[in-house]
Design brief:
The complex is a heterodimer of chains A (582) and B (390).
Chain A: H1 15-21, H2 29-58, H3 65-110, H4 114-119, H5 121-131, H6 133-162, H7 164-210, H8 213-218, H9 222-274, H10 280-321, E1 341-348, E2 356-363, E3 368-372, H11 379-386, E4 394-399, E5 402-403, H12 409-414, E6 416-419, E7 428-429, H13 430-434, H14 444-453, H15 457-460, E8 470-471, H16 480-494, E9 498-502, H17 510-524, E10 528-532, H18 536-541, E11 544-549, E12 552-557, H19 559-565, H20 567-573
Parallel strand pairs in A: 3-10, 3-11, 6-9, 9-10
Antiparallel strand pairs in A: 1-2, 1-4, 4-5, 7-8, 11-12
Helix pairs in contact in A: 2-3, 2-6, 2-10, 3-6, 5-10, 6-7, 6-10, 7-9, 7-10, 9-10, 14-16, 16-17
Chain B: H1 5-17, H2 19-24, H3 28-80, H4 86-127, E1 147-155, E2 161-170, E3 175-179, H5 186-193, E4 201-206, E5 209-210, H6 216-221, E6 223-226, E7 235-236, H7 237-241, H8 251-261, H9 264-269, E8 277-278, H10 287-301, E9 305-309, H11 317-330, E10 335-339, H12 343-348, E11 351-356, E12 359-364, H13 366-372, H14 374-387
The chains are: A alpha/beta (582), B alpha/beta (390).
C-alpha cells in the first residue's frame, strides 16, 4: 500500500465535466446577474466620466454647476456599483465554493475504501479545502469575460469615434501587451505547480515530525531534523525568490508598456490639436479611454491564467467525484434470523500481491469462531471483507445461501459490532465515543452499566469531567488499554447481532484483560462472534477455530481438533507460559 | 465568531483518517453532516470577510472619487478666476489617482500587518514555550550506578496525579520488569526517565546523581527507548535504522542488527534493500515489522540503559519470545527496564516492581512477590489461567 510520491502529474478533465461540477449546486443566479449588471453600469459610468472630463477641459473650466453635479453623481454611481460588485462577487463565490465543497464531501464519505488506500488521506483534505475554492474563480472569470467583452466593444468604438489614427496606434500596442501577459501567465503556472508540490512535501514532512517530537528528542535527532527542515525551507525560499524575480520582471515590462501607451495619445494627439483636428479635451478623454482599454486587456490575460489554475484544481475534484461509490442501492435488510456466514473460494489482494488465496471457511451462526495465524496471514483482511469494506477478487461471501452482496450495505454493517486493532477513537467526549453509531438515545444508567462492564467506569469516573471529558485527536490523553476499553464499550452499546473482535485485549494487562473478556463473553453468548485470537484461552473458549497461514486456510474445526492437529504451528504462534513458572 | 479554514481542515482530516471506522459503524450520514456543517462555518466566516472587503474597496474608491471631484470642481473655479492655468489643473487631475494609489497600498499594508499580528501572536506562543534544560555545560559522562526514584510525584496537568510518592530502585546491569493495571503509571516512569517531563516533587537519580543535572544530550544517548507504537519516520530503511545515531554504520553492521531483530528478511525483500523508502506514518509495514525495525535500531545504538514499553504487544508468540530472548541475552549486563504485562518478559526479569495507582505496592523477585504481594499474585494467576494447556 505504498504511495507514489514522485513528481507532479497534472490532472485533466473534459469541458463537459467542468460544467458538470456546477450541476447540483445551488447557483446564486441572482447575485451573478447583479454582478453582471453592476459591471456593465460601472463601464458606462466610467465612460461617461471620461468623456465629461474631456468636455470640461475644452470648456476651459467654464462648466455650469448642473453639469458638475452630474459629474459628482456619476462618481457616486460608480462607487455604489463597485462596492456592490465586490460584495456580490464575494458572496456569490463563497456560495459556489460551499456548494461544491459539500457536494464533494458527501461523495467522499460514500466512496469505496479501496480508492483511498492508494491516494492517502492528506491530498483528499486539500481537495475539499483549497481545490474547491477554484469553482467560484472559474465561474466569476467566465462571467467576467462576458462583461469585459461588452466593455471593450464600447470603449474601443468610442476610441475610434474620437480619432481613427491614434486609435490604430493604440490598438497596435495591444498584441504586445497580450504577448507579455501570456508569456508571464504560462511561466507563473509552471512555477506555481512546482511550488505547490514542494509546499505539500514540506507540509507533510512537518506534519509527520511534529506528530512525534518525543521520538526526535529521545533519539537525539534534533540536529538532523533541523538540517532537514532547513533544507526544505531553503528550497521553498529559492522557489519563491524565482517567483518574485519573475514578478518583478513582469512589472517592469508592464510599467514600460504603460508609459508608452500614455505617450502615444498625447504625442500623436498634440500634433492633431496643433493642426486643429482635435480639441485638448478630446485628447484627455482619449487618454482616459485608452487606459481603460489597456486595463481590460490585462484583466483578460489574468483571467486566462486563473482559468488554467482553476482547471488543474477542478480536474482533481472532478476525478475524485468519478471514484466508484460503494454499492448501496438495492439490498434487503438483515432482519432475518441468523445464518452461517461462509467464504467460498475467496481470492483477494489490496494491490498486486494476493493476501488471501482460495479461502473457504465457515462462520457458524450464534457461535464463537476464533481466527488465528501469524502476523500478515490475512486475519485483519478477513474482517475487512466480512464488513464489505472491500470486495473479493474471486469467490464470494455468503450469508446462508444468499450472497452478502445482496444485502443493503448499511444494514449489513450496522449488524456488525467491531473492535478494531488500535481502537481508533473519534474526537468528541467519552460519552459520544461510547454512544457512537447508536441511533437511539441512551440513558445515563445504561451508559454507566455498559461502562462498568467494559471496565471504563473505573477510570472515567475519576476524571474531573467524567464522561464529558474530551478525547484529544488520536486519543492521546488515554492509555492504550483505556482506549481499548472505550472501544469495547462502544461495541457493547450498539448490541449488534454479530461481533468482530480484532485483537481486542492485546493492550491490557492480565487483570483488565480477564475482566473485559468476561464482559465480552456475556455479550457473545448467543451471538455470532468472530474473534482474532492471540491467546490459547480464547481458542479454548471458542466453538469453532479457523487457522490461517500465509493467506490460506490451514485448518478449521473444533478447538480440540485444532489443538491436536496443528499443535506445532500453534505453539509457535500462541503465547505460551514459561516453563519455570509452572 | 464562526470558525474558519483551520477548523474545516481539522474536521475533514479527522474523518478521512477514520473512514474505515465510519463505514464500519455505518455513520456516514452523521459524519457527512459534520463535514457539511464545518464547510458552512467557513462560508459564514468568509462572507463576513467579503463584506469587510467590499466596504474597504468602496471606501478607497470613494476617497479617490471625492478627491477627483473636488479637484475638478475647485480647480474649475480657480481656472475661471485665472488663478491656475489649464496645464496645472490637468496635472492635478492626473495626480489625484496616483496619490490614491499610494494611499491604497498603505491600507493594504495595514491589513497585512493586522493579519500578521495574529499569526505572530500564535508563533510567539510557541517561541515563548519553555525549552528543555540542556545542561550542555555538564560533563558528557554519565555516572554508572543504580537508577533510583525517591518519593516522586507527577501529574500531566489537571488530570490529577499519576505518580503519588513513588520510590524504588532499578539495579544497574539487571533486567527490571514493571507491572500493574492500565493507567497505573508504568509508561509515565519511562517518560520521566527520558526527561521528557520533570517530576513535580521528589528526585530521580543515577549512581547517586540527579538525572535532572546531567547533560541532556549525553543522557539520552545512553538510553534506548522502545515505545508501544514502534514509531518510525518516513525515509529510507537505512535512515530509519541509523536515526539520531552519532556515527556512520556499514551495511554489514546494519544487516547484522537486522538479523538479530528478525527484520533482515523483510529488508532483503524490499526493492532497494537498505535504501528502500518507508511510507509516511510507517504505513507500508505491519505493526510487528515496525517493532522489529525499531529493535534493530536500538541494537545499533547500543545504549547502556534500555527502556521498553510493551515492546512485543504487536508480535505473535514466536516472534515475541525470540525478541525477548534477544533483549535478555544480547543486552545482558545492561540496565533494562520493561513495562509489560506479558509473563514472558516478567519471567526473564531479575527484579519485578508492582505498581498500583501511582505507588509501589511491592518489589522483588517473582518468588518473593508471590508470597508478599496480593495484586501480583492475582496478576500471575490470571495470566497463567489464560495460558494453561487443556
Amino acid at each position: 500500500m505504498k504511495k507514489n510520491t514522485g513528481g507532479y502529474t497534472p490532472e485533466k478533465a473534459s469541458f463537459r465535466e467542468y460544467l458538470g461540477i456546477f450541476m447540483g449546486i445551488k447557483m446564486p443566479w441572482l447575485f451573478i446577474i447583479l454582478i453582471f449588471a453592476a459591471t456593465i453600469a460601472t463601464t458606462f459610468a466610467g465612460l461617461f466620466l471620461t468623456m465629461f472630463t474631456g468636455d470640461m477641459v475644452d470648456a476651459q473650466g467654464n462648466v455650469p454647476t448642473g453639469q458638475l453635479v452630474r459629474f459628482a453623481l456619476g462618481y457616486a454611481v460608480m462607487s455604489v456599483c463597485l462596492a456592490g460588485q465586490t460584495i456580490f462577487q464575494g458572496i456569490a463565490s463563497e456560495r459556489i465554493n460551499l456548494g461544491l465543497r459539500q457536494k464533494l464531501w458527501r461523495k467522499i464519505v460514500y466512496t469505496k475504501q479501496s480508492c483511498y488506500d492508494v491516494d492517502g488521506g492528506e491530498t483528499l483534505v486539500s481537495r475539499v479545502t483549497t481545490d474547491c475554492d477554484f469553482a467560484s474563480k472559474l465561474l466569476t472569470t467566465i462571467v467576467g469575460f462576458l462583461s469585459i467583452a461588452i466593455s471593450l466593444a464600447t470603449y474601443i468604438s468610442s476610441m475610434y469615434h474620437l480619432n481613427v489614427t491614434i486609435a490604430n496606434y493604440t490598438m497596435l500596442l495591444i498584441p504586445l501587451s497580450i504577448l507579455i501577459g501570456w508569456g508571464y501567465a504560462k511561466l507563473k503556472f509552471l512555477i506555481a505547480q512546482k511550488t505547490q508540490a514542494m509546499l505539500a512535501r514540506t507540509t507533510s514532512y512537518l506534519a509527520e515530525r511534529t506528530s512525534n517530537l518525543a521520538l526526535v528528542k529521545t533519539s537525539n535527532a534534533q540536529e538532523l531534523e533541523l538540517r532537514q527542515g532547513e533544507a526544505n525551507f531553503q528550497a521553498q525560499y529559492e522557489m519563491q525568490i524565482k517567483t518574485g524575480l519573475m514578478s518583478a520582471f513582469y512589472t517592469a515590462l508592464q510599467t514600460l508598456y504603460n508609459i508608452v501607451s500614455i505617450l502615444i495619445p498625447f504625442i500623436a494627439g498634440a500634433g492633431f490639436v496643433a493642426a486643429g483636428k482635435m480639441t485638448a479635451g478630446e485628447v484627455v478623454a482619449f487618454y482616459g479611454i485608452a487606459g481603460s482599454v489597456g486595463t481590460y486587456f490585462t484583466n483578460v490575460i489574468d483571467s486566462v491564467g486563473t482559468i488554467r489554475q482553476a482547471n488543474g484544481a477542478l480536474a482533481r475534484v472532478i476525478n475524485t467525484m468519478k471514484l466508484p461509490d460503494e454499492q448501496n442501492a438495492s439490498g434487503a435488510t438483515v432482519d432475518e434470523p441468523d445464518r452461517d456466514i461462509s467464504f467460498v473460494d475467496v481470492d483477494f489482494g489490496y494491490g498486486e500481491e494476493p493476501v488471501l488465496h482460495q479461502v473457504s471457511c465457515q462462520i457458524p451462526k450464534k457461535k464463537v469462531t476464533a481466527v488465528i495465524g501469524a502476523n500478515g496471514s490475512g486475519k485483519t483482511t478477513l474482517f475487512r471483507l466480512i464488513e464489505r469494506l472491500y470486495d473479493p477478487r474471486k469467490g464470494s461471501i455468503r450469508f446462508g445461501e444468499k450472497d452478502a452482496d445482496s444485502y443493503d450495505l448499511h444494514a449489513w454493517r450496522k449488524a456488525f459490532g467491531v473492535v478494531a486493532q488500535g481502537s481508533p477513537l473519534l474526537e468528541g467526549t467519552v460519552r459520544e465515543n461510547i454512544c457512537y453509531g447508536c441511533q437511539r438515545p441512551v440513558s445515563e444508567e445504561e451508559l454507566i452499566k455498559v461502562a462498568r462492564k467494559a471496565r471504563v467506569y473505573d477510570f472515567v469516573s475519576k476524571l474531573p469531567e467524567g464522561f464529558d471529558t474530551l478525547v484529544s485527536p488520536g486519543g492521546a490523553n488515554f492509555s492504550g488499554g483505556q482506549r481499548q476499553c472505550i472501544a469495547i464499550a462502544r461495541a457493547m452499546m450498539c448490541a449488534p447481532d454479530y461481533l468482530l473482535l480484532d485483537e481486542a485485549t492485546s493492550n491490557l494487562d492480565a487483570h483488565s484483560e480477564r475482566a473485559v473478556m468476561e464482559a465480552l463473553e456475556e455479550l457473545m453468548r448467543g451471538r455470532t462472534t468472530v474473534i482474532i485470537a492471540h491467546s490459547l484461552a480464547t481458542i479454548r473458549r471458542a466453538d469453532h477455530v479457523i487457522v490461517l497461514r500465509e493467506g490460506q486456510v490451514e485448518a478449521s474445526g473444533s478447538p480440540r481438533q485444532i489443538l491436536e492437529a496443528s499443535g506445532n504451528y500453534l505453539s509457535k504462534v500462541m503465547n505460551r507460559k514459561r516453563p519455570n513458572m509452572a | 465568531m464562526p470558525r474558519g479554514g483551520a477548523f474545516l481542515v481539522q474536521t475533514i482530516a479527522g474523518r478521512i483518517r477514520n473512514l474505515p471506522l465510519i463505514k464500519s459503524f455505518a455513520t456516514e450520514k452523521k459524519e457527512e453532516e459534520k463535514g457539511v456543517a464545518a464547510a458552512g462555518e467557513l462560508y459564514k466566516a468568509n462572507v463576513q470577510f467579503q463584506y469587510i472587503q467590499g466596504v474597504l474597496v468602496s471606501y478607497l474608491f470613494v476617497t479617490e472619487a471625492v478627491g477627483i471631484v473636488a479637484a475638478v470642481i475647485w480647480g474649475s473655479m480657480l481656472l475661471r478666476n485665472g488663478e491656475i492655468t489649464l496645464e496645472a489643473w490637468l496635472a492635478f487631475f492626473l495626480f489625484v489617482p496616483m496619490v490614491n494609489n499610494v494611499l491604497r497600498q498603505f491600507s493594504a499594508l495595514w491589513t497585512s500587518v493586522k493579519e500578521l499580528q495574529g499569526r505572530a501572536a500564535r508563533m510567539s506562543g510557541i517561541m515563548d514555550a519553555p525549552q528543555e534544560e540542556q545542561n550542555s555545560s555538564a560533563p558528557a559522562d554519565i555516572p554508572a550506578g543504580d537508577v533510583a526514584f525517591r518519593d516522586v510525584h507527577f501529574g500531566y496537568g489537571e488530570s490529577g496525579e499519576v505518580l503519588s510518592g513513588l520510590s524504588f530502585t532499578i539495579p544497574r546491569g539487571k533486567a527490571t520488569a514493571t507491572v500493574g493495571v492500565s493507567g497505573s503509571g508504568k509508561t509515565t516512569i519511562l517518560k520521566l526517565l527520558e526527561r521528557l517531563y520533570s517530576p513535580t516533587s521528589g528526585s530521580i537519580q543515577v549512581g547517586g546523581k540527579e538525572i535532572a543535572g546531567l547533560n541532556l544530550h549525553s543522557w539520552r544517548d545512553s538510553i534506548s527507548y522502545v515505545t508501544q507504537d514502534a514509531a518510525v519516520f518516513s525515509g529510507t530503511v537505512r535512515e530509519c535504522l541509523t536515526y539520531g545515531l552519532p556515527r556512520q554504520f556499514g551495511d554489514g553492521e546494519l544487516m547484522e542488527a537486522a538479523k538479530l531483530a528478525g527484520i533482515d528478511g523483510y529488508i532483503a525483500q524490499q526493492p532497494g534493500g537498505l535504501d528502500a523508502p518507508l511510507a509516511i506514518w510507517g504505513s507500508g509495514m505491519s505493526g510487528g515489522q515496525r517493532q522489529r525495525l525499531v529493535i534493530a535500531r536500538e541494537l545499533l545504538k547500543g545504549a547502556d540503559i534500555l527502556l521498553l514499553d510493551e515492546p512485543t504487544s504487536a508480535l505473535d508468540a514466536e516472534a515475541a519470545a525470540a525478541v525477548s530472548d534477544t533483549f535478555y541475552t544480547r543486552f545482558h549486563g545492561r540496565t533494562i527496564v520493561t513495562v509489560t504485562h506479558e509473563l514472558n518478559f516478567i519471567a526473564g526479569a531479575d527484579k519485578i516492581i508492582v505498581l498500583n495507582q501511582g505507588k509501589v505496592e511491592g518489589q522483588g523477585s517473582h518468588e518473593e512477590l508471590m508470597k508478599s504481594c496480593e495484586s501480583y499474585r492475582k496478576l500471575v494467576e490470571e495470566q497463567s489461567y489464560q495460558e494453561v494447556f487443556a
